[in-house]
Design goal:
The chain has 10 helices and no strands. The chain has 347 residues and is mainly α.
């Protein structure tokens, strides 16, 4: 604070006020460190108690299964059977409750996060921080999707320089690598993004890295325009997905039908069935474009002048992307269709 003292007495009073403020800061900081130690002890205690409960519940589940298997010999009464069913339901509910609790407790990082960040605690300890990080992740995806769309358009239609293409591929590598790290942190904090939708970002990182190392030549120029046009379409579809998925997730969370930490994904999940089926043609077209890229690269690999190993690697990567995306999306659609077919039978 700036001031113009008119005498020593005013300076002295200012100093006394600063001394009192400093003492308050020291006391507050001391209390803060004390509470941190208490929180750490509570975290360890709670984590240990949950681990013990999980172990005992697992043993109890095995015992209940044995009781059910030996039901004819043990002659359980109908009340006992109902009691076993009730305990099994309660165990499932308790396991889900433990998962919710553990989302706010420190946990060991997975192998990927340990390799990238080391043994750093990435668990956010309150809902506000979790939601803020999740929203920042979604905004990051949206902003980079727009940037990648503009960048790919520039490379495709305005400038044809290998250095600019390399910069674009480097941006793709950085983008997908950053996504994998952020998604791992979000999974540690309770987000339910699993399976293929996580793995495809690792594969996309690898594919972009291979494209980055592909040297300038006739084969690169043969595939360049097809690749950049594909990137343009992919960015467009990802923007559509983010725009409509975020709105759908907001509605479903408000109705209590989705978890607060659920994320938008670059694919199709069961919760999108209501209101987002119009995205399916765009997604399937993108999947078959990946197949087309793979076939194009495979034909290029068979050419006598093909010497670059990148051609075969990119062909295999696109084929894996196509198979993973296509069959995962098809599985979701089939499962949802069968569930809808079964509904009238249950009425």
């Amino acid at each position: 604070m700036l001031f113009s003292p008119t005498g020593f007495s005013e300076c002295l009073r200012e100093w006394e006020d600063l001394e009192r403020d400093y003492q308050y800061i020291q006391d507050t900081h001391r209390l803060y460190k004390q509470k941190l130690e208490e929180v750490t002890k509570l975290q360890d205690s709670c984590s240990g108690a949950i681990a013990r409960q999980r172990k005992k519940l697992k043993e109890l589940t095995v015992s209940l299964e044995e009781c059910k298997e030996n039901h004819p010999t043990t002659k359980l009464s109908p009340e006992d059977v109902d009691a076993i069913t009730g305990m099994e339901d309660s165990i499932k509910e308790r396991v889900d409750a433990f998962s919710e609790m553990e989302a706010f407790l420190p946990k060991k990082n997975g192998l990927y996060l340990t390799l990238v960040l080391g043994n750093v605690n990435v668990t956010l300890l309150n809902k506000l921080s979790k939601f803020a990080y999740k929203d920042e992740y979604e905004k990051f995806k949206l902003i980079l999707t727009v940037i990648l769309f503009i960048f790919s358009f520039t490379c495709r239609f305005l400038f044809s320089y290998r250095a600019l293409d390399a910069l674009f591929n480097f941006l793709l590598v950085w983008y997908y690598c950053t996504l994998t790290i952020r998604e791992s942190i979000l999974i540690n904090n309770g987000s339910r993004i699993k399976g293929w939708w996580v793995f495809q970002h690792y594969l996309s990182t690898f594919l972009s890295g291979v494209m980055l190392t592909w040297p300038e030549g006739a084969l690169y120029q043969m595939f360049r325009n097809q690749f950049l046009t594909y990137c343009l379409y992919q960015s467009f579809v990802q923007f559509l997905q983010y725009y409509y998925q975020s709105g759908c997730l907001y509605r479903l969370r408000a109705l209590g039908e989705r978890h607060n930490m659920d994320l938008t994904v670059e694919g199709f999940q069961s919760w999108m069935w209501r209101g987002l089926t119009f995205l399916l043609p765009f997604l399937f077209f993108g999947h078959f474009w990946q197949l087309y890229n793979s076939i194009t690269l495979f034909k290029m690999f068979q050419l006598p002048e093909c010497k670059e190993w990148q051609v075969a690697m990119c062909s295999c990567s696109y084929m894996v992307l196509f198979m993973g995306n296509f069959f995962t999306t098809l599985g979701v659609v089939y499962q949802k269709y069968m569930n809808n077919q079964d509904k009238p039978k249950n009425i």
